[in-house]
């Protein structure tokens, strides 16, 4: 069954160039949104980014656990903090 996705994707999706430029020698960190971790794996802050000046704000969590929590209760105003806040 052809849903016309080939025409839709050509019309609305074109390759974008990445114009991000950085100077210096430091590492660049990025976050991928709308993806799931492997089953059984936890999402957590890298240990080298947590110290006394920058304390841990959230406990390690499983993505599907967060989704289950959101679906099982009336979501609080800050769902993420309610589910895995320190």
TrEMBL record:
Organism whose genome encodes this protein: Solanum verrucosum
Protein name: Uncharacterized protein
């Amino acid at each position: 069954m052809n849903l016309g996705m080939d025409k839709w994707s050509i019309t609305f999706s074109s390759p974008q160039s990445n114009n991000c430029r950085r100077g210096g020698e430091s590492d660049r960190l990025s976050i991928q949104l709308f993806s799931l971790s492997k089953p059984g794996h936890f999402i957590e802050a890298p240990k080298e980014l947590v110290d006394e000046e920058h304390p841990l704000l959230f406990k390690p969590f499983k993505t599907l656990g967060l989704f289950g929590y959101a679906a099982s209760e009336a979501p609080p105003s800050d769902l993420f903090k309610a589910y895995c806040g320190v």
